[in-house]
Inverse folding.
């Protein structure tokens, strides 16, 4: 190719490059004529040929913009019609699946024999991967819907003001949240203080706390603390993204994830150290404290589950019936 | 004071639909791209070439104008003509424009 291409050749080639084969020839021919007509007009007015060509092309603007105007394809990934749905779906999925995956993979890795720190690390990476995969998949799906008119026209259901969610009771929510956090912190502090500062000298001459020694050293309580942190942040997310069936299912799954290992530990007499209670002169304490602990680990998740179901029922009842009555 | 850019955006939005109407009215008589551009310009409808050419394609796709290549001259040209559908749309838009103009007039005349 030794023929020097003119500016017009280069401009037209760039403008029609992204167009479909069917459009290309026709638009190219018309564009060439239009540019030639405009250049001719300027020559008549006394401008020299090269300057006239440059002026005309400058006025036409970047060829890519011109190509975008010719093409019917959207020049955005997700348009304003779908954007709010896109954000909502993304928020619900991220706020449910990611914390769930965090706890699940952390517990599984820990049970499989990894240390608490390694479990936490793998759970963090796993959640990050889950979040990125989810975001990617949701974005691709919405980009496809954006480009498929048949799918978009199915969303023509009329908006009904009655579908608006009830105004959340902000004050009740905040006090509930603060209460939950304080409760977790107090429990954790008491346990840590009793186990370390409150340790007494056991029969073997070593300091022992109320909790089973090997269990304490296994790091399971670190995992439990992180579970509490995730559970709390999950409830905050659910509050702001609006309570949905997905939130309820995730809450129940989180509760089950907690109850099963917790009951296995507490009911199997793996939580407390009977030597500690014997040393402090309260041998029955191991039974009594054990029962209280069992009640707590069963009752709290149970209340949480009931609350999740009640909220979902309440939210759904607030929506208008399908027949419009 | 309104910034130049904002002013340009407001004026552009107000004019957006008027170019379509002016094209449909001018193309009662068959014409080609560049000639239509100069005709619009001299009639007082400022429009850019990069807006007009894609617009003509869209109008053709919607069946509001018909087109035909004319190869009689040295330079082959695509001639556009308003279709019966285009004529009906032009009549409706003219009616809307007149109503709007009357409404604006009424606004300024109100005490």
């Amino acid at each position: 190719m030794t023929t020097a291409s003119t500016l017009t050749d280069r401009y037209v080639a760039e403008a029609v490059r992204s167009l479909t084969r069917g459009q290309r020839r026709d638009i190219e021919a018309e564009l060439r004529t239009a540019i030639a007509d405009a250049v001719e007009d300027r020559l008549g007015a006394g401008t020299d040929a090269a300057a006239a060509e440059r002026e005309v092309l400058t006025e036409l603007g970047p060829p890519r913009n011109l190509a975008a105007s010719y093409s019917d394809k959207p020049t955005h990934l997700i348009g304003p019609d779908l954007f709010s749905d896109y954000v909502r779906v993304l928020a619900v999925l991220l706020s449910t699946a990611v914390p769930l995956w965090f706890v699940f993979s952390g517990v599984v890795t820990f049970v499989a024999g990894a240390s608490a720190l390694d479990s936490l690390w793998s759970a963090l990476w796993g959640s990050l991967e889950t979040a990125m995969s989810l975001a990617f998949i949701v974005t691709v799906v919405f980009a496809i819907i954006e480009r498929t008119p048949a799918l978009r026209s199915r969303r023509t259901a009329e908006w009904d003001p009655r579908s608006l969610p009830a105004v959340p009771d902000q004050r009740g929510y905040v006090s509930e949240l603060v209460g939950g956090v304080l409760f977790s912190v107090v429990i954790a502090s008491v346990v840590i203080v009793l186990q370390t500062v409150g340790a007494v000298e056991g029969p073997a001459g070593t300091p022992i706390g109320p909790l089973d020694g090997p269990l304490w050293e296994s790091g399971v309580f670190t995992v439990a603390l992180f579970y509490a942190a995730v559970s709390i942040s999950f409830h905050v997310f659910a509050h702001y993204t609006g309570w949905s069936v997905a939130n309820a299912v995730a809450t129940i799954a989180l509760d089950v994830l907690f109850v099963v290992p917790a009951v296995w530990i507490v009911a199997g007499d793996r939580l407390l150290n009977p030597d500690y209670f014997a040393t402090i002169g309260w041998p029955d304490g191991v039974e009594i404290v054990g029962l209280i602990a069992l009640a707590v680990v069963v009752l709290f998740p149970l209340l949480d589950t009931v609350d999740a179901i009640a909220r979902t029922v309440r939210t759904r009842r607030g929506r208008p019936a399908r027949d419009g009555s | 004071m309104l910034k130049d850019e904002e002013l340009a955006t407001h004026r552009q939005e107000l004019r957006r639909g008027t170019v379509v109407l002016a094209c449909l009215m001018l193309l009662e008589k068959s014409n080609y791209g560049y000639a239509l551009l100069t005709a619009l310009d001299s009639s007082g409808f400022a429009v850019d070439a990069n807006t007009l050419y894609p617009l003509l394609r869209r109008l053709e796709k919607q069946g509001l104008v018909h087109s035909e290549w004319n190869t009689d001259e040295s330079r082959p040209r695509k001639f556009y003509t308003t279709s019966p559908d285009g004529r009906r749309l032009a009549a409706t838009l003219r009616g809307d424009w007149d109503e709007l103009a009357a409404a604006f007039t009424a606004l300024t005349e109100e005490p």
